[in-house]
Each structure stands twice: as structure tokens, then as C-alpha cells.
Amino acid sequence: MPVPFLDLKQQYAAIGAEITAGLTEVFENTAYILGPKVRAFEEDFAAFCGIDHCVGMSSGTDAVHAMLAVSGLPRGSGVILPPNTFTATAEGVVMAGLVPVFADVDRGTWNLSPRAVEAFLEENSRGGRSVDPRSGAAVSAILPVDLYGRPAELAEFENIADRFGLLLFEDACQSHGASRGGRMTGSFGSAAAFSFYPGKNLGAWGEGGAVTTRSGEMAERLRSFRDHGSSRKYFYSQIGHNYRMEAIQGAVLGVKLRYLPDWNRRRAEAAARYGELLAGCPVELPPAEEGVVHSWHLYAIHTEARKELGEYLASKGIGSGLHYPYPLHLQEAYADLGYGEGDFPVSELNSSRNITLPMFPEITPGQQEEVASAVAGFFG
Ligand SMILES: Cc1ncc(COP(=O)(O)O)c(C=O)c1O
Fold first, then answer.
1. Is residue 234 domain-shared with residue 287, that is, in the same domain?
2. Does some domain include residue 3?
3. Ligand 1, pocket-test mutation among 6, 84, 145, 173, most atoms within 8 A of CB
4. How many structural domains compose the chain?
5. Predicted confidence band at 1 (pLDDT cuts at 50, 70, 90)?
6. Greatest CA span in the chain, whole angstroms?
7. CA-to-CA distance for 249 and 319, rounded, in angstroms?
8. What pLDDT digit, counting tens, does each position of 77-114 carry?
9. Domain that holds residue 120
10. Minimum CA distance residue for ligand 1 atom 15
11. Is residue 180, in this structure, part of any structural domain at all?
């Protein structure tokens, strides 16, 4: 039986009609950009994250860019982030006129290592500030990524940021509804960026993103930035962008948000089931941790034979993915930062070993058994 990597059609079959009813209102009002549907979604999503403000954006990439651009970080200063992430995390840093400063991830958690960050900041401390020895940029912020939906060590990063006088931002593009120690992702640090790319746990019918923040002032700057830096009609207080969320996406996301807790619960059940089914296979499974609610956006396993395993799964009609096969510090786009092979051994190892298995709320136990028996069959 073929098993797709992701199956959005089932979601459409279940709630498509409910969403479409809301869209008619948008079409009848002809208010296609921002407007009441986006405003209502922003309020609901802020409440969901346990934070004061949410500002809808045109994508997760734009959300990362916008939150850093309006944060007041000195131009040319450094932002620490992991190399094991989607390129958009680092793109946002560069687009905001800042310098990506990579630090390694933890072998056990696959997320940015607080130890690596702390050691980097201590080793490179000069007269009360930490300076990236490669670029000469004074480090001004830390940007952990909740890879696969596992919340990074955000409270620990808050303490590190405080200790070194840095700001903390979060790339929560994969972690809608995740929490750590009872605190939701999106509620830590200065601001967090979310993506509503269709395949995300909370996905739009097109592109979408948001920034969450506790600061009313930052929310205002974000609202202005996403709308060409306008402060009021005909007046521009900053250089901005067109990062406005479409009304259609606000309407879609407003409906889908109500289903997200149940979808995430079903993903967690599927993750637990994979854990049982794959227990006898010679692969590394995602870390199980107390006090951490994972959003299970992606279910990754590690094996040295990931290429062959992926090909074998494909031959059986089973979808898989690579998230992410080449770490950012070795990508051509970031070559001018001067990193090389061996700079981040754990990120490089994790990049070479990860493979992601089919994961979506509607996946059935039968489909998961099919995946697990194919994995077991591959290893003989
Ligand atoms: C970690 C991470 N950051 C940023 C993004 C960018 O989001 P978008 O695709 O909505 O621009 C994504 C989404 O793919 C992501 O997974």
C-alpha cells in the first residue's frame, strides 16, 4: 500500500466546506488584504500562543525578516543560529542587514545547542561584548529554530541572552502548538516567526506567516513594516515592505486554528506509534523528553544509510523527505561567510543522516505499519 509523505486532501475533505463558507464572505466584501478576517485570526493565534500580539504576514520567510528588521538591532551585528535549518532562517538575518553566526546543534536533541552558544559567547567576549571572530560582527541576538516542531531550549536561551545582553528571537515556523515547561512556542524572547505554508501543522491555502510578540511597540512597528512602513495614510515612518497577509488566508487559518489542538494530538499519537513500531530497527529515533510538547511537524529518524533507505521506501510507494540534507554553513549562498567543512561536526553529521517519514494527522495505524515494515525490511 503506498503511503504519501503528506496528505492534505483528507483535511480538505473534512473541513473544506466550512472554510469555503468563510471565503464567500471575503469575496462578497471584496476586502482581499488584511481586514477583519486577518484581525480576528491574529487575536486568536496570539491567545493560542499565550502572548499579547500577533501580526499576520505574507510568509514565514517574511516574518523572520520583519521581526529582525524592526527589532532595532545594530546593522551589521551578528545573529546566532543553527546550520541545520531551512535557508529562510538565515535569509531573514541577511535581509535585515545582519550577519548569520552559526553555532552547532546538539547530537541528542538535533536543535541549537545552548552549550555551544554559551561557549562561543564566552570564548569570543571582548570588553563586555561577544564578537564573531570570522566576520568581526558584534553579536546582538540569538535565533534558535524549533526544528521538526521540537521547542528549542528557549528558557535557557532567554537566560543566556540576558547574561550576554542579547535579544532572543525564535524561528517557530515548524512548532505551532508546541510547548516547553508549560510555555507555548511563540511566547519566548522578543518575538517569534511562524510559517503557514500549506504543509505546516497550521497551513494556509497559499502563503502565510506571522510574528508573535509581547511588545505592543514591536507589534506596531511590524504592522507598519508589513505595509510599506506607513504610519498613517500617505505617511511613511520607515522603509518597509509589502508583507501583508491576504484576507483569504486569515479566513482559512481562523477556521483551521480551531482544529489544530486535535490535529497535533493525532500527530503525537502517530509519533508514539512510530516509536513503538521502529523500536527494533537500527535507526536513531527522535528524543523523548519530559515537559516538552512537540508539534511533530516532521518525524525524522537518523541512519547512515538514509539515501538507500529513501530509495527503498520510494520503490515501495512510500514518501520520505530530507530535512535538511546540507547544512547552511556549507551552502553556496553563505559561502562569503567563510565557513568550511568540519566547522560544525554535529550539524554535518545530522544533515547526512536524517530522513523524514510520512507524518500527518490523518495517517492510519495501518499506513504506519506499512512504513515501519518497509524500514524493517530494508534493514533485513
Ligand atoms: C524553519 C523554517 N523557517 C522558515 C520557514 C519559511 O517559511 P515560509 O515557507 O512560509 O516562507 C520555514 C518554512 O518552510 C521553516 O521550516
1. no
2. no
3. 173
4. 2
5. confident
6. 68
7. 28
8. 999 999 999 999 999 999 999 999 999 999 999 999 99
9. 8-103+110-254
10. 173
11. yes
Query: Is 2 a member of any domain?
Result: no
Atom of ligand 1 nearest to the CA of 147: 1
- Cα of 68 to ligand 1 centre, how many Å? 15
- Mean pLDDT, rounded, of the chain: 97
Q: Using an 8 Å Cβ cutoff, are 205 and 252 in contact?
A: yes
At residue 128, does pLDDT exceed 90?
A: no
DSSP state of 329: G
In ligand 1, the atom with minimum distance to the C-alpha of 88 is 4
Q: Which residues pair with 168 in a beta bridge?
A: 142
Of 150, 174, 205, the one to substitute when testing ligand 1's pocket (max ligand atoms within 8 A of C-beta) is: 174
**179 and 61 belong to one structural domain:** yes
Please state, in angstroms and rounded to a whole number, the distance separating the CA atoms of residues 244 and 1.
42
Rounded Cα distance between 40 and 25, Å, is 14
From the alpha carbon of 174, which atom of ligand 1 is closest? 16
Ligand 1 centroid – CA 73 distance (Å):
22
Distance CA 283, CA 174 (A): 23
- Residue of 197, 354, 356 to test ligand 1 pocket, by largest number of atoms within 8 Å of CB: 197
Asked if residue 18 belongs to a domain, the reply is yes
Q: pLDDT tens for residues 186-203? A: 999 999 999 999 999 999
The three cell numbers locating residue 289: 523528553
Residues 364 and 341 grouped into a single domain: yes
Using CB distances shorter than 6 Å, the residues near ligand 1 are: 59-61, 64, 85-86, 88-89, 145, 171, 173-174, 195, 197, 209
